[in-house]
Design a protein that fits this description.
alpha/beta; Rossmann fold; 7-stranded parallel beta sheet; 7 strands; 45% helix; binds NADPH dihydro-nicotinamide-adenine-dinucleotide phosphate; binds the ligand N[C@@H](C=O)C(=O)O
Length: 257
Amino acid sequence: MTTALITGASSGIGSVYARRFAARGNDLVLVARATDKLNILATELRDKHGVSIDVITADLTDSAQIEPVLQRLRAEPPIDILVNNAGAALMGDFATAESADMYKLLRLNVLAPTLLTSAVIGGMVKRGRGSIINIASVLALLPEYSHGIYAATKSYVLTLSQSLAAEVTSKGVYVQAVLPAATRTEIYERAGGDISKVPDVMEVDDLVDAALVGFDRKELVTIPPVPDVTAWEAFERERGLLAQGFSNAQPAARYRS
Ligand SMILES: NC(=O)C1=CN([C@@H]2O[C@H](COP(=O)(O)OP(=O)(O)OC[C@H]3O[C@@H](n4cnc5c(N)ncnc54)[C@H](OP(=O)(O)O)[C@@H]3O)[C@@H](O)[C@H]2O)C=CC1
Ligand SMILES: N[C@@H](C=O)C(=O)O
């Protein structure tokens, strides 16, 4: 029996991951702040699928509250799949953002997935197996579309996933970055936005089912809304070409006087 730990399982994308992994027969550890919602989901999924489910209530921005989650990730029975999903948006411009709000977002979207991954990765490498799913965003590739620091937090999640995959894939550990575009969840309203004003919103079940197709195919980067995967492949090819120019002891001729 494998066990998946899912952060932000009380609503939206995380709750659908919980449903899907329970349906696949995985035991679960569900993490979020809303204990009542987690318990309702856990009871439903235990009854429906006969899996074992633990609930950890934690505000992942709080260094004391994240500790039991880190301890569970280091403990036995091992966590086979970590879904770093908990996250939030922050509306508004960088120039007018409150530093306290930015600090909190960085703790949730950047520091928490980093610490959680760090807690679990050693055991996965030792066992030669395990999976880490990181929920980034298409905004990681389109930062100009969004003001403030949200897109930058998601670029971090994508970059961390790529660099971690380069380190651990050969050791049997699978890393996936999922890049959703607009998806119908509570995230907009929670950040003071209005989802009815957002065009082309994907339903959350469709998003997670597509992401799981990418998971089963062991894709490193899964972008559910992109119709033609060759667009992503071309992007990666061009990135490789650009990188060929990085190994130069001299500045390029155009920068020399
Ligand atoms: N919906 C969208 O359009 C997109 C979403 N994403 C990403 O998907 C992920 C999931 O978001 P989504 O499902 O849309 O949004 P929701 O707001 O529906 O879910 C967010 C989840 O994160 C949890 N969470 C929020 N703050 C904290 C905290 N401080 N500590 C612990 N858990 C917390 C919430 O639970 P609780 O309040 O109980 O703590 C909730 O379970 C995020 O990382 C988001 O950036 C990416 C691209 C597009
Ligand atoms: N819509 C954004 C989240 O709120 C995103 O695309 O990441």
